[in-house]
Each structure stands twice: as C-alpha cells, then as structure tokens.
Amino acid sequence: xxxxxxxxxxxxxxxxxxxxxxxxxxxxxxxxxxxxxxxxxxxxxxxxxxxxxxxxxxxxxxxxxxxxxxxxxxxxxxxxxxxxxxxxxxxxxxxxxxxxxxxxxxxxxxxxxxxxxxxxxxxxxxxxxxxxxxxxxxxxxxxxxxxxxxxxxxxxxxxxxxxxxxxxxxxxxxxxxxxxxxxxxxxxxxxxxxxxxxxxxxxxxxxxxxxxxxxxxxxxxxxxxxxxxxxxxxxxxxxxxxxxxxxxxxxxxxxxxxxxxxxxxxxxxxxxxxxxxxxxxxxxxxxxxxxxxxxxxxxxxxxxxxxxxxxxxxx
Length: 315
Known about the structure:
- This protein is an alpha/beta fold and about 325 residues long.
- It folds into two domains: about 5-240, Spore Coat Polysaccharide Biosynthesis Protein SpsA, Chain A; about 250-315.
- The chain contains eleven helices and seven strands.
- A seven-stranded mixed beta sheet has the order 3-2-1-4-6-5-7, sandwiched between helices.
- The two termini are about 25 Å apart.
C-alpha cells in the first residue's frame, strides 16, 4: 500500500532473461502486486521470473501464446489490474531501463488524487543529452513534438517513455481493447486520455541506458508508423472533442491552416517551376505563395493556441 492506495506494477517482458531478475528484485516494498506479462518470449525469461519470485504472494505471471507487442503486453497487465481493482497501476519495463528509485515519484501524484496519469520524462534530466543515445534523443523529441499537437497535452514531453502510472478511474473509462498494441501505445493512450478529459502530469526521471538492454526499436520503421497513428488520433480527437462533445471554432482554424498549407506547397512548386523555366519569378506568384504561407501559419498557430487554452486544466 502507498498512502492507503493499492499499487500494482505491470512488467511487460519479451526476451529479457538478462535484465528482468534485477527489475523484480529491486521492486519497492510498498508495491502490492507485480504483474509480469511475458509476451511469448523465446528465451528463459519465464524461468528467470519464476526463480526470482518463487514464494512472493505479490507476484502474478501472465503469459501470451503469441507475441502481441509491448502495447499488447501492457494492456494485458492493465486488464488484470482493472479486474482486481488496483487503485494505481504503474508500468516498469522488464529491460531494466526504469530506475525503481523513481517509482514513488511516478505513483505519488496519482495516489494522492492530484492527477489521473503520470508519465516519466527522461529528456529534461540534467545530463540527458550525453546519457541517451543521440539518435534516440532526437527521434524521441521529434515524436514528442507531434504528440503534443495530436494529444492536446502540450506540457508533456518524452512521448515514448513507458514509465507511467494510471488511476483506476481512468482504466475504467478507457477502451483497452481499442488501444494500439505496438510501440505507439503511449501516444495512442495519451490521445484517448485527452478525449476523456483526464489530467496528465510530466514527471522528471533519470534515463537508464547501456546496462545490457537490447532495444527492439528501429526509428526508421517506428517514426513513420507512429506519425500516421498520430495523424489519425489527432483527427479523431478533433471530431469527438470539439465537434461532437462540445463545439469549438478551433476546428475551422485547423482546417483552414491545412487548406492554406496545401495551397502553399502548390504555390511554391509553381514558383520554382517558373524560376527553372524562365529564369525569374513573376512577382504575383511570389506574393501569392507568401500570402498562402502566412495564412497557413496564422490559422495553425491560432488553432494550437486555442487547443492549449482548452486543455490547460488537464495539467
């Protein structure tokens, strides 16, 4: 128990035989349930788990027959916590990249009822640029920027961090079967939380790398997939939250921003066409391109500002 609240920690694991033992051994005493979700590992992950916690009544093992992805493993853990009415459910990966010393910081705001969901942020830690592989840092920052716009949580960074805690009331409201099952799961969950007006807080945590973990993330594949997921999630959020649920004119600002953005691309292509074809740019074409660009920028920035204002109470 933590401040009278029952705490469950979901540990998704796929081929983590070298790291998961230490993750389980260092789990804080105030954790009531440890739900290890083996996502059809092909190594000795399950054997290591059973040897590590043979007589611990906090321990539960959920095994997938087929690999469902990290999001699918977390959802299975969430469903177990929901069925057992755990007040706060945290996620701590089985690869050892989440410092157990940070768990209390992640859990505490949810346990106190100050927020409904907390999310670890590794990007603002003092020496994060040197601690995190640079390609991971930059890729994460890129996805975080787009996740801000797609989810409506403009104050949240490090969108790909899986070190989180969620309140029971949020688990009850979210359709867990509809949550994305792959690496884009944290992004998709943020969008669904915003649609339901849940409060989300950013928690600074220590990055943990180079401890023998093996990452299955390939940015060249993950970024396009998550970007498309964010585009679909953004459109769904706009329609549900600002058209169906409660009308807001920011929808028109985004539509006009997108329209003029498309026109801007056409106009600048035309400008470059004339430049290459006749060696100079007709002034009217240059003015039209700049007008489209300014219109797209103004409409989009105003839409973002309205969205920030509409979601400021969800911090």
